[in-house]
């Protein structure tokens, strides 16, 4: 019996480019499966202590009790006024 052909790349690049070679879709959150457990534990504590406000902006709490979320300009003026005086 004759030897059979092992491999050929004929027509494969044509087929791949027919609909275009696309970049893989990036997911919003990468999987933590298989990551270092010590790192994940620390990440959990870190996220727990860096809570976001409802608007998605980190709240700044100052010693004088003023909270500023980075949006309201009047609150920003009060914030800086309280710091300066």
From TrEMBL:
Residues 1-56 are annotated as: Disordered. The keyword Ribonucleoprotein applies. One of its GO terms (biological process) is cytoplasmic translation. It comes from the Eukaryota. Pfam families: Ribosomal_L29e. Keywords: Ribonucleoprotein, Ribosomal protein. One of its GO terms (cellular component) is cytosolic large ribosomal subunit. GO terms for molecular function: structural constituent of ribosome. Residues 15-30 have a biased composition (Basic residues). PANTHER family: 60S RIBOSOMAL PROTEIN L29 (PTHR12884). Belongs to the eukaryotic ribosomal protein eL29 family. This is 60S ribosomal protein L29. It comes from Paspalum notatum var. saurae.
């Amino acid at each position: 019996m004759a030897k059979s052909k092992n491999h050929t790349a004929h027509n494969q690049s044509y087929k791949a480019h027919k609909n275009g070679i696309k970049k893989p879709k990036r997911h919003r959150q990468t999987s933590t499966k298989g990551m270092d457990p010590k790192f994940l534990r620390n990440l959990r504590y870190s996220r727990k202590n860096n809570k976001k406000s409802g608007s998605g902006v980190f709240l700044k709490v100052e010693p004088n009790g003023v909270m500023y979320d980075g949006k309201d300009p009047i609150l920003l003026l009060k914030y800086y006024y309280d710091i300066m005086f």
